[in-house]
């Protein structure tokens, strides 16, 4: 069962505070220590610059102030990144995050202006190989339809290419396109942001500098915010790519490059926080540990239903089965023969269920005076077949070789027939097109090609005084016969809830070249959480395959799969923590409809982080039913996904969704069954969830791959996602021992003559970085780190080679020492009075008039000298008054509170404990604030 995240974090916070004020310490099991000689400072890839770096030019713009105003408000902001493969970001990122995904993670985990941005939406509509020419053609679908508040544009790499010239966009046209984008974005009410791009070194971009100068000129002329990535890149990265640090090839950023780009972006927007996970990630890398889980099969247990009628008008409809298990028996319908005898074109649609042994004829039409006939069969081997016996005098036909239809599930087969064509559709998807002489003239499969006297269900009859033969013993739901061929849309509607692939197939086989959008709507699980910062969430995994890997022969058998249209599939994750189905329904227009999606994956959670149901079962069912109805009315294809939660408490919610899938004729993916089976099969299931039972980065990767598999979208073998895993059985898990190995307030002087200091005790498998006011410092003998009054000591734990730090544990601590002024260090000592001579002035005193010594005036300051380490202090509520100075204390961040950054007064240790506990709870509540 899940624990409430805020309570779990609070317990960690309180434990840290108890250790900080000396109420006991302990070393976790296995937290061995090593000698000081083995202690070593970690090597960082590049040093972070812990400061905001927005340019003065940007800060002078009206758009800048408009953006800052949005960031000062609690209303969610929608951010959109669009561009070419640099923005698209899947080419050289090694399966890790691209800069837009790091930015998304940063917003969701780091309050800005003390406002949590967990409900902000970040979208990416970058398309590999794109130019400003293509984006202008697709601007409505790629940008305007998304309704973003802020739009980042980064194009030019392909526009400026030397050859082939057909890809190149000349500089003046490039300028005009940028101006068009800016005008359109502003007209929509959004804020445009221009980005230059990383510096190419492949020799194909001789004009790149000139095109980037155009970006700068347009930004200045149109007064647009500019993020000059090119200049940043040339400063941080060797121009010839010799260091191989930020660039994966001669054009695209590496995984590290995307991380550094994200940091640059955040600093340029003046929203940088050096205590954030992004600021404290020096290398784009995902920790690997543990052994892979044994995979499990999943049966999509969508309840079976009889439909009785096709979704389209038909001349004749024959029903047979009364239950989903009733075996078919021959039925004679000769009285209907005259209605179909003259059809010169027709559609046959039949819905049935059969096993591999249940072969035979579903429906037959025959002439009583000869052996002429036409029939629809389940042939040997479970294959669908249209058979005929016409002028040739023998029975032959056309067989659908794959897929096998006699698999124990309901299928709908539809056949459009004209003189010269016969097109087979299975569950809404065309699977066998026939045309030519074999189905034309005397060989045409039309009913007017012979005299129809007999119509028989579940058998064949032919000739004078016939007896039924070739009987079918499976389940026959209905047969519909029409005198018109059906449209693709009408046939697609026949599929019902058969397969997810039949719903999404038109958008995977993107032959029309129209960009399409896939929306995920859910709660905590599909939102993704904040685990390993470089690891993709489930939707990000899905996105990489759908928009990049699933092209060409790998997915759609499209020889021109590298066309821009084939990659113009955009995934939008409109999921938020704590989002119930009721909230989804209320926000449907803003979270789904406004994006004009073609596909909606509806993925609610059943349980909240405390392990309690989000809502009643009746409310859950009603809301999902309404969401499906609204999406259908808007022409959106819906896929229901049961909660990806293993708890048995979720069973009834998953069953309800599967029943709704059957009733509403939409496909379903049973994620609940999958994770429940994984948990039962694998003793190490705990490796894929965090301490609250939510999927961690390993679980998110498994969920993403599972959704792709069940959607019929293969992650191509040999590509990044198929091969990606986060396992290493040889790695050792380690937990930084905060209470015994890290003490930022190690010394406890009783005077201001000894500077505050911190101690880092060695621990096997853990290395520590120690900084003061953002600058790394080295230890003195014995591992002691000395810092000055008023400074902040910050300690960060990282795993040593061969070790992995357990997910979710604390790895950063900080202590801020009060200033000498706050401690009254430089104030003259009070006079010393000799108690044996009360009338004699003390040392340093001057007698007052009349010889009397002045008495001290009453004060609310403590008269005793503050004791204890300057790095320790008593807690105060944020914004409360420090009575000794009669001024507000600086508010502490949640991380500062955790680290023990407490204002020092003369209270007792028990006062320390009570106030620390209360303040820690407040800090955690702020950290997990949901908007």
Give a written overview of the molecule.
This protein is α/β, with parallel strands linked by helices. It has 27 helices and 33 strands. Strands 6-17-8-13-14-15 form a 6-stranded antiparallel β-sheet, with no helix packed on it. A hairpin with a 6-residue loop joins strand 11 (383-389) and strand 12 (396-400). Helix 5 (99-109) packs across helix 11 and helix 8 packs parallel to helix 9 (208-222). The chain is elongated. The protein starts with a helix and ends with a helix. Mean pLDDT is 78; it is low at 1-50, 556-562, 746-750 and 842-931.
Main attributes of the structure:
931 residues, alpha/beta, 6-stranded antiparallel β-sheet, 27 helices, 33 strands, elongated, disordered N terminus
Which helices and strands occur, and which strands form pairs?
Layout: H1 5-20, H2 56-59, H3 62-71, E1 78-83, H4 85-88, H5 99-109, E2 121-124, H6 132-137, H7 139-142, E3 150-154, H8 171-187, E4 191-195, H9 208-222, E5 225-227, H10 229-236, H11 255-268, E6 316-319, E7 331-332, H12 337-340, E8 346-353, E9 360-366, E10 373-379, E11 383-389, E12 396-400, E13 410-418, E14 421-426, E15 429-435, E16 454-457, E17 475-482, H13 488-492, H14 500-508, E18 516-522, H15 524-527, H16 538-549, H17 564-567, E19 569-573, H18 581-586, H19 588-591, E20 599-603, H20 617-633, E21 637-641, H21 651-664, E22 668-669, H22 671-681, H23 697-710, H24 720-723, E23 732-734, H25 738-741, E24 742-743, E25 757-760, E26 766-772, E27 775-776, E28 784-786, E29 792-799, E30 803-805, E31 812-816, E32 881-882, E33 887-888, H26 894-899, H27 909-927
Parallel strand pairs: 1-2, 1-3, 3-4, 4-5, 18-19, 18-20, 20-21, 21-22, 23-30
Antiparallel strand pairs: 6-17, 7-16, 8-13, 8-17, 9-10, 9-16, 10-11, 11-12, 13-14, 14-15, 24-25, 25-28, 26-27, 26-29, 29-31, 32-33
Helix pairs in contact: 1-27, 5-11, 8-9, 16-23, 20-21
């Amino acid at each position: 069962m899940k624990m409430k995240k805020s309570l779990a974090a609070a317990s960690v916070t309180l434990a840290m505070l108890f250790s900080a004020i000396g109420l006991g310490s302990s070393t976790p099991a296995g937290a061995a220590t090593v000698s000081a000689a083995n202690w070593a400072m970690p090597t960082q890839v590049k040093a972070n610059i812990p400061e905001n770096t927005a340019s003065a030019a940007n800060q002078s713009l009206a758009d800048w102030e408009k953006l800052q105003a949005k960031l000062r408000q609690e209303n969610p902001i929608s951010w959109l990144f669009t561009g070419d493969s640099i923005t698209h970001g899947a080419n050289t990122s090694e399966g890790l995050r691209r800069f837009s995904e790091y930015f998304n993670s940063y917003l969701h985990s780091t309050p800005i202006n003390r406002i949590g941005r967990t409900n902000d939406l970040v979208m990416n509509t970058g398309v590999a190989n794109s130019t400003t020419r293509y984006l202008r053609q697709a601007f409505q679908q790629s940008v305007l339809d998304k309704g973003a508040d802020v739009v980042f544009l980064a194009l030019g790499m392909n526009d400026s290419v030397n050859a082939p010239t057909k890809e190149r966009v000349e500089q003046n046209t490039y300028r005009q396109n940028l101006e068009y984008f800016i005008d359109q974005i502003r007209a929509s009410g959004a804020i445009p942001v221009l980005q230059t791009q990383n510096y190419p070194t492949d020799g194909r971009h001789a004009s790149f500098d000139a095109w980037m100068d155009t970006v700068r000129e347009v930004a200045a002329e149109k007064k647009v915010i500019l993020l000059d990535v090119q200049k940043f890149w040339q400063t941080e990265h060797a121009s010839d790519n010799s260091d191989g640090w930020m660039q994966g090839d001669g054009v695209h950023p590496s995984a590290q490059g995307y991380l550094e780009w994200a940091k640059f972006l955040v600093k340029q927007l003046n929203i940088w926080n050096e205590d954030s996970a992004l600021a404290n990630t020096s290398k784009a890398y995902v920790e690997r540990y543990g052994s892979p889980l044994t995979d499990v099969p999943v049966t999509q247990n969508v309840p079976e239903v009889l439909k009785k009628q096709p979704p389209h008008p038909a001349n004749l409809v024959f029903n047979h089965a009364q239950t989903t298990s009733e075996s078919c028996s021959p039925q004679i319908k000769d009285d209907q023969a005259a209605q179909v005898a003259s059809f010169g074109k027709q559609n046959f649609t039949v819905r049935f269920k059969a096993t591999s042994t249940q072969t035979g004829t579903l429906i037959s039409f025959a002439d009583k005076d000869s052996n002429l006939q036409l029939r629809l069969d389940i042939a040997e081997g479970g294959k669908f077949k249209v058979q005929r016996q016409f002028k040739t005098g023998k029975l032959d036909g056309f067989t659908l070789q794959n897929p096998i239809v006699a698999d124990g599930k309901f299928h709908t087969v539809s056949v459009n027939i004209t003189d010269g064509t016969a097109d087979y559709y299975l569950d809404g998807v065309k699977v066998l097109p026939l045309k030519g002489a074999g189905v034309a003239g005397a060989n045409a499969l039309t009913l007017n090609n012979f005299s129809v006297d007999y119509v028989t269900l579940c058998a064949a009859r032919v000739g004078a005084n016939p007896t039924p033969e070739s009987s079918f013993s499976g389940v026959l739901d209905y047969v519909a016969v029409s005198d018109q061929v059906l449209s693709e849309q009408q046939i697609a509607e026949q599929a019902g809830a058969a397969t997810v692939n039949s719903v999404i197939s038109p958008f995977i086989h993107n032959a029309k070249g129209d960009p399409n959008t896939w929306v995920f709507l859910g709660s905590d699980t599909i939102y993704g959480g904040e685990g390993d910062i470089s690891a993709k969430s489930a939707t990000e995994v899905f996105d990489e395959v759908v928009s990049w890997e699933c092209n060409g022969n790998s997915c759609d058998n499209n020889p021109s799969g590298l066309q821009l249209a084939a990659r113009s599939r955009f995934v939008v994750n409109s999921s938020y923590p704590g989002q119930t189905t009721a909230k989804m329904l209320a926000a449907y227009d803003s979270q789904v409809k406004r994006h004009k999606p073609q596909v909606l994956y509806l993925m609610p959670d059943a349980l909240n982080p405390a392990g309690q149901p989000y809502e009643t079962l009746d409310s859950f069912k009603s809301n999902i039913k309404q969401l499906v109805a609204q999406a259908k009315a808007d022409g959106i294809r819906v896929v229901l996904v049961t909660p990806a939660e293993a708890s048995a408490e979720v069973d009834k919610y998953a069953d309800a969704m599967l029943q709704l899938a059957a009733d509403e004729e939409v496909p379903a993916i049973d994620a609940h069954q999958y994770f429940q089976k994984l948990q039962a099969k694998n003793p190490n299931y705990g490796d894929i969830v965090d301490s609250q039972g939510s999927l961690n980065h390993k679980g998110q990767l498994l969920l993403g791959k599972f959704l792709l598999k069940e959607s019929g979208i293969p992650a191509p073998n040999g590509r990044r996602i198929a091969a990606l895993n986060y396992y290493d059985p040889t790695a050792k898990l380690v937990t930084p021992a905060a209470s015994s190995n890290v003490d930022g307030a190690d010394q406890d002087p009783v005077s201001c003559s000894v500077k505050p200091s911190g101690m880092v005790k060695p621990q096997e498998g853990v290395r520590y970085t120690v900084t003061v006011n953002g600058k790394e410092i080295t230890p003195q003998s014995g591992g002691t780190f000395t810092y000055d009054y008023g400074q902040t000591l910050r300690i960060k734990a990282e795993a040593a080679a061969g070790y992995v730090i357990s997910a979710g544990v604390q790895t950063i601590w900080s202590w801020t020492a009060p200033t000498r002024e706050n401690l009254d260090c430089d104030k003259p000592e009070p006079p010393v009075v000799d108690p044996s001579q009360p009338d004699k002035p003390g040392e340093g005193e001057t007698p007052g008039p009349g010889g009397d010594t002045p008495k001290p005036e009453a004060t609310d300051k403590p008269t005793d000298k503050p004791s204890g380490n300057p790095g320790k202090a008593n807690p105060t509520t944020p914004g409360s008054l420090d009575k000794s100075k009669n001024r507000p204390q600086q508010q502490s961040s949640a991380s500062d509170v955790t680290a023990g950054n407490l204002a020092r007064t003369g209270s007792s240790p028990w006062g320390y404990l009570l106030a620390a506990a209360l303040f820690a709870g407040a800090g955690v509540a702020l950290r997990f604030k949901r908007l």
